[in-house]
Automatic annotation (TrEMBL):
InterPro entries, alphabetized: Bifun_inhib/LTP/seed_sf (IPR036312), Bifunc_inhib/LTP/seed_store (IPR016140)
One Pfam family cited in the UniProt record for this chain: LTP_2
Residue span(s) of domain Bifunctional inhibitor/plant lipid transfer protein/seed storage helical: 33-107
Full protein name: Bifunctional inhibitor/plant lipid transfer protein/seed storage helical domain-containing protein
Taxonomic superkingdom: Eukaryota
Organism annotation: Saponaria officinalis
Spans through the membrane: none
PANTHER family: BIFUNCTIONAL INHIBITOR/LIPID-TRANSFER PROTEIN/SEED STORAGE 2S ALBUMIN SUPERFAMILY PROTEIN, BIFUNCTIONAL INHIBITOR_PLANT LIPID TRANSFER PROTEIN_SEED STORAGE HELICAL DOMAIN-CONTAINING PROTEIN
Length: 113
């Protein structure tokens, strides 16, 4: 059970990082399978970030290119509290990757301050 909680927190932290990345391009026509793959690649690229390791160049690149709509749909009301608990850290990671974060940006069930 404890391992599952860590995996959930890791996934949520990475999801919030991409949601706040400031990349608002929408790729029309992505299938659910393609969105799943976008999220999988991002999580794989940014896993060390969960352990407070600075983001790698590849992680930052994935933050910039992953389709925002694919990620925001995964931020449901059920996981929003986990996201909010890690929001300050996630905002810092996004900034270190050179992205601007708009105030009051809504991504799934969360809104930036």
């Amino acid at each position: 059970m404890k391992g599952n909680t860590l995996v959930t927190k890791m996934g949520v932290t990475i999801l919030i990082i991409i949601c706040l990345s400031g990349n608002y391009r929408v790729i029309n026509g992505l299938t659910p399978a393609q969105c799943h793959e976008e999220r999988r690649i991002l999580v794989s690229a940014c896993k060390p970030v969960v352990y407070r390791v600075p983001p790698s160049a590849y992680c930052c690149q994935r933050i910039r290119v992953t389709d925002i709509q694919c990620v925001c749909t995964a931020i449901t009301p059920k996981i929003a509290p986990l996201v909010t608990a890690n929001l300050d850290y996630a905002l810092g990671v996004v900034r270190r990757c050179g992205r601007q974060i708009p105030r009051h940006f809504k991504c799934g069930s969360i809104t930036t301050p």
